[in-house]
Write a structure and sequence with these properties.
- The chain has one helix spanning about 155-165, and strands at about 5-10, 15, 25-30, 40-45, 55-60, 70-80, 85-90, 95-100, 105-115, 125-130, 135-145, 165-180, 185-190, 200-205, 205-210, 215-220, 225-230, 235-245.
- The protein contains one helix and 18 strands.
- About 5% of the residues lie in helices and about 50% in strands.
- It is elongated and about 75 Å long.
Length: about 250
Amino acid sequence: GAAPSSRLTIDRWGISKNTTGDAITAEQINSTIGSPGKSLRASFTRAAGSAGQAEVYQHVEHFAQLRELSMAFSVRVKSDVAGAVRIHIYDDATASTLSAANVGAGEETLTVVKTIGASPTRLYVGISLSATCVVEINDAMLVIGRRPLRFTPLTPAEDVLRCLRYRQRLGLAIRDHATAANQTFDAAIYYKGQMGGTPTFTLSGGANANHAGVSIAAASDQYARASITSSAAGETYALDVAVNAEWNPAGG
């Protein structure tokens, strides 16, 4: 189904609008343009008298390494309104660089090239909508350099690793014998693949004895450390605990 305004949608693309009363939704459809598979279809409706704009965007992760480099962004689009769609690269040091607008209502590729600023704190790419329209979006490609490249789909293994950057379902077991109260026991939680940053955790279920709860004592993008503290002397454990780890990019 369609997703409402100002949130992450399909494949971690976000949608937003800048005018109250306007509406934008996004949904996943079977592709009619570009590579076979799925596309994102965005529907933007301006309210009467509105001159608002909307966008479909995605934040670029770990962008410090891209400062002062040239980047090329290309997207396959098909809009029902000519001149309504542009793509852009934005950093908050030098603002947006926009492509030319779509020229018709058929399938076309939009491209834009930008040199990233020296000290941005945010970097993202987007598809800007400047009129009421429905647009199909596919084959987005961002590369280093001034020449856009043909879209290359991820392999299944690459796709799995990308998914694991954002969310993983893991397990945890800690067991030891306490000789007194307030003794702490730890266990490492190793991720299935490197996450995009330090995640947040939700722990649930499991068999527990002689402690007040499991806590995450330390974490990074590669592993975490969980701990329990004994309430008294005796067998102390947290077994078969479900661990959900989730990382959201800044601004997502």
